[in-house]
Write a structure and sequence with these properties.
Layout (H helix, E strand, L loop, with lengths): L1 E10 L7 E11 L4 E5 L6 H9 L6 E6 L2 E2 L5 H4 L3 E4 L13 H9 L13 H12 L18 H13 L5 E5 L7 H18 L3 E4 L3 H6 L3 E6 L2 E7 H5 L3 H12 L6 H5 L1
Parallel strand pairs: 3-8, 3-9, 6-7, 7-8
Antiparallel strand pairs: 1-2, 1-4, 4-5, 9-10
Helix pairs in contact: 3-5, 5-6
């Protein structure tokens, strides 16, 4: 479902601020893979997601989604293949619109607009059933303005909107980092339910090692623009934070870990 081959990205090339963010990254995700991505500040995690999403062009390499080469496609043209949830809960929804109106916009993304009635009774019933998956009581608040919701509720709604039309690839860019621990846990639980419901191929960045271990079927760790660990199957099921730190040290030869990574 995702093929990243030999991708390189350098910022400010040829200047004193030159930064090699991605150094020949190879990554393949099969249909239904739920991969967590972890690494310290500057490891290349967000750069990788932004490269896949088309936020900026890569210097070398190719990126394919669902067998389609999107390497040279603009960001807005890749949108039909990708669902994305950002770190900021305010980014994925329209605050002045109702919950059902936000869902209707997501459901009709890419379709031709008509003069038909805005939201039908059938659609409203469908939205209620979908919202039940989140287990946040939003199914009883369809006409509530999204701006009145908490950050966690908005982020969960954004997740639902991003997956309403079943994207080929779901990108989660530290989507719980701005939430308190209790709310973050609820959003992660909702994430698991949404991903499993449609068997979505998912790439989730996190700074929290425990979350990276507990969620998904595969874990990759990045360091200095490269993937240095790729753990799946039984190895991941029995992985501990201590194991992960030890493997990181053995692979990179570094005993230093980013504060945010450790404290996460």
């Amino acid at each position: 479902m995702l093929d990243v081959i030999g991708v390189r990205k350098t910022f400010n090339a040829g200047t004193v601020n030159e930064k090699a963010a991605l150094r020949g990254v190879d990554l393949r995700l099969d249909d239904g893979d739920f991969v967590t991505v972890i690494g310290g500040n500057g490891a290349g995690k967000s750069t990788l997601l932004n490269a896949i999403a088309g936020v900026w062009p890569v210097d070398e390499g190719t990126i394919s989604i669902g067998g389609v080469d999107v390497t040279h496609l603009a960001e807005h043209k890749r949108a039909k293949y990708i669902g994305r949830v950002f770190q900021d809960p305010m980014m994925g929804t329209a605050a002045s619109m109702q919950i059902e109106e936000n869902l209707a916009l997501a459901a009709r993304r890419g379709q031709h607009r008509t003069l038909k009635r805005g939201i039908t009774a059938k659609e409203r019933d469908e939205y209620k059933e979908l919202l039940k998956i989140l287990d946040l009581g939003l199914e009883d608040r369809l006409t509530t303005k999204v701006g009145l919701l908490s950050g966690g509720q908005r982020q969960a709604l954004t997740l639902l909107m991003a997956t309403l039309r079943r994207p080929d690839l779901l990108l989660l860019d530290e989507h719980t980092a701005a939430l308190d621990p209790k709310t973050a846990a609820k959003v992660l639980e909702a994430t698991e339910r949404v991903v499993k419901k449609d068997n979505l191929t998912t790439l989730m960045i996190t700074h929290n090692m425990r979350d990276a271990i507990d969620h998904g079927n595969r874990l990759i760790m990045m360091f200095e623009g490269k993937i240095v660990l790729d753990i799946s199957g039984e190895d991941k099921k029995h992985l501990t934070v201590e194991d992960l730190l030890a493997k990181f040290g053995q692979t990179t030869g570094s005993t230093e870990a980013d504060d945010k990574l450790l404290l996460g």
